[in-house]
Specification:
The radius of gyration is 22 Å and the shape is globular. α1 packs across α2, α1 crosses α3 and α2 crosses α3. The protein folds into three domains: 79 residues, Arc Repressor Mutant, subunit A (Orthogonal Bundle), CATH 1.10.10; 90 residues, D-Maltodextrin-Binding Protein, domain 2, CATH 3.40.190; 95 residues, Periplasmic binding protein-like II (D-Maltodextrin-Binding Protein, domain 2), CATH 3.40.190.10. 41% of the residues lie in helices and 25% in strands. By secondary structure, it is α/β, with parallel strands linked by helices. The two termini are 15 Å apart. Belongs to the LysR transcriptional regulatory family. This is LysR family transcriptional regulator. It comes from Bradyrhizobium archetypum. Pfam families: HTH_1, LysR_substrate. Keywords: DNA-binding, Transcription, Transcription regulation.
Length: 278
Amino acid sequence: MDLKQIRYFVAVAEAGSFSDGARRAFVTQPTLSAAIASLEAELGFALLERHARGVRLTPRGEEVLETSRSILRHAERLKAASGGKPSGRPLRLGLLPTISPPFVTQCIGRLQALEPGRSWRTEDAPLAKLQERLANGRYDVILTALGLATRGHRQLELAADRQALAVSARAFPRGPVSPEILAGQPLIVRVHCEQLQSASRVLDAWKVRPRVVAQTDSDARALAMVAAGIGFCLMPDSFEHPDVRMLRPEGVDLTRRLGFEWVRGGGDGWLDRALDAA
């Protein structure tokens, strides 16, 4: 039994599902599931029960959860008492602006929790600039759309999203939407989208020829315009708005893997140590 297993169990118990727990713990779901299965085998009883909407704690799991939280609190106190101090230089984090704000804040919060005393500085930049600035040392770590890892780099995948067609929920309240309905409709273009050219395949697959009525580099503005019925927009399905529906066309899969990327040993080596222990 080790702290990783305990931390993963608490993450799943608090998140209510293995997938959300994995995102909280900064690990892949198979890694998290294997660690919890090993913990249950060592304890000799089940901690979690799966159901249609996620997981629930068993009666013994409820008891173990309180003990696990206590163990983690004491571990943090021991770490604080060890006298180790984080580097005085802020950790420089580059952010891809097309990632949804709730996911960005969740990732930053989890990263900060790994070492609360460390100072931070964030900066938005397009995909190509993120990679360039990571390579030349301007950033210690980037939260980005992951591709093939450059030699000497490390990656930690946290989630994925897909390019979708955002439409007004008032104009298209329920049921499937025929592609023909969208022909000739107003289109809002997100000019900062790193998948802009590839996203045109969504319209090609649906044989839709829209008319462009707006161009913006603000996802919040694009969502608001869609919600107001001004037009529809191609954007990641991780963005949410109560008055917007996300349509996912069959046969088109523009998926992004989202996560951290950093140079091995960067950030005075803290990133390697912290994320390996996450």
